[in-house]
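Schema walk-through. Below, the input block comes first and the output block second. Nothing else is stored per chain. Lengths vary across the set, and this one has 274 residues.
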Amino acid sequence: MNSAGLGGESLEKGNPTVGVAADQLEVAQRFQFAQDMWQGRWLAAAEVQYRDTLAVSPDFAEAANNLGLVRATAGDHKKAIVAYREALSARENYAAGHMNLGLSLAALGQVAEARGSYLRALELNPLLPEANDALGLLHAKIGEYSVAEGYFKKETEVNPDFAEGFNHLGLIYLSLNDPASALAPLRTAVSLDARNADAFNNLGLACKRLGLTREAGQAFQSCVKVNARYVPGLINLGAFHFDVGNLEAAEQCLLQALKVEPNSQQARRFLSRV
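--- output ---
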């Protein structure tokens, strides 16, 4: 999941909280201009335009939320949190605002506060995309894999087209040393997103642990085909080639991994065995 947050909302997606004293046409025009800047990823210009929108209509929750998204995308989660809280002050029952606040809190390591924000988002909208996934990631990072498993399962149920949800569920099963259970969600993940290098890598690991050598090799090859600079995939493909006796191919993969990440001790250890 991208820690910047859920995608910015437009005027057509709901009922924006525009102050009654403001000229709504002016607010709409300013907001749309800000949206155009945001969608074009002109972050500095988008911030100015969202702030201008809020100057005219301080209670415009969507504008404050999207200002937070701009700041989070720029890596300034502290300022993003300020904007999200302004959005929630204008409209407390704003599920996406709680979700985005949680993502920025999590990015700053404020785990308990982030969890509270995610839970409030789900309380308001049990079907909110990626909220269960965010909770799963939060628990996984602190080693609570069984709790994380439950949230990832729920994400795959409410958001069945979200490849990362299946990828994360499979990864949790690998962390729980259950590669057999990991296989189905990881296969689903790569079928949903054929450009997901991480999911292919995790699928390869699951297959390798289950002795499915051919499928493991295919998964690792797909991983580096999708992203030739994905170091874990390069290392695992190198290890696969080593295991099947293709030392030249193993060396090439490991050298590529070191080219991308010169300080990779894992790649160096494998290379010393080739």
